[in-house]
TrEMBL record:
It is found in: Cell membrane. It comes from the Bacteria. This is MFS transporter. The keyword Repressor does not apply. It comes from Streptomyces durmitorensis. PANTHER family: BLR6921 PROTEIN, MAJOR FACILITATOR SUPERFAMILY MULTIDRUG TRANSPORTER MFSC.
Amino acid sequence: MNPADDERFGAQLRAEAPAPHDATPSDDTAPSPAADSARRRWWTLLAVSAAQLLVVLDGTIVNIALPSAQSALGMSDASRQWAVTAYALAFGGLLLIGGRISGALGHRRTFLIGLIGFAAASALGGAAVNPETLFGARALQGAFAAVLAPAGLSLLTITFTEPGERGRAFGVFAAVGAAGSAVGLVAGGLLTEYASWRWCLYVNVPVALLAVLGATFVPRDRPVRGEGRLDVAGALLSATGFAAIVYAFNEAEPLGWGSPKVIALLAGGVLLLAVFAAVEVRAPRPLLPLRVLTHRARAGAFASITLLFVAMFGFYLFMSYYTQTVLGYSPVEAGLTLIINAVAALAGATLIAGKLHGRVAPAALIVPGLLAAAAGMFLLTRLTAQSTDVFPLYLVPALILTGLGLGCVLPPTASLATADVPPHDIGAAAAAYNASQQLGAALGTALLNTVAASATASYLASTAQATPTAASVHGYTTALTVAFVILLAAACVTAALLRADRP
């Protein structure tokens, strides 16, 4: 993708933007239109980044609070997973519908609806007096996140069209997303330990309301003309198909990949999505136009971000288990360790990817980013139960490398996913990008946890005088070896799809 393409796309969007109602060419006392436009652009970035933090944060913050919530509300061991799963299913299953709603209502209006709904659902969850209320609130959070995420990315796409500003904006947006998971773990530990598990949900309310305040400065956009009625068949097929696959990934962790339930869910989900693709080809107003997926550069962005999230969420799982069960860290200390990763991701997204956007080809950022993350994974595969000086020699370099890699990959893939997309397809492209992240995260957590558990059990069964600690470390390093291979494969696929043309 090059600056000329970005500029042509920006000119198209500016041509379609509504004219100001009050300003006239002869109004010398009015503020400079250019200055007012710049101010509103950066307010857009602030509001969208706050919303992105909410969406990503809630994927992890409740995990730390779950034991306390289970005790307070009397959840059974079998049902407690729904506090996490309900959010993931609603979010992943409704993303494509959220993208269509964003185009039909207007991205700014949808963004505000999503923020207010997310705040209300969070307050309901924090005040829950029984498990059913908490599960329902988490599902509502996921549903509102499914309209909030694509609307936010769409607003960013249509607001920042100049290559330099676009790079900085997507760098900040990606940095917030990259740091969100680590911040969620830290915040969840601190709030649970020093306040209450309920504040892991209540904390969303002031953040969402601040984002609503910022969104009042966001320029209005027009709803996409000719959207017509909702593609009902596509909506039902996509929602049930994505939900079935996400649920299968969640169930694979406790039941194993060979479980009949997991196999049935996976087969059903794949079949539903295949039927969805066939329906979309013939639909007059498809929920997800297949041209969004078949574009070579966007396909590369979707593939690389999916595989990166598969590997990274397995990495976060390893960090949580290893630091607490082997190194003896408290949940708060384990979360604080990940701040190194978050700071590195922030640096990679803003100081490297943000500054180089438009100056180098996207592949020149994405492929090295994937390789840097792979190097961090590989370093941890060298760990043994006897390793000394683990924090300075292994954890810190690995956290820095994976963070830099994540920071270098997220901005260009987010930009590529929505660049050169016609205005009526921006919501769908933004939703598909978020869906790629959700599927990658769900698959990575389930797949690599299963690999680690299987390798641990095999080590205990085959190694004489094996200790539980040695077996656990062997399981973790085996899982990270798989993550390393996934990242190498992602780099190869991305290099093939994103040929490193000059920007």
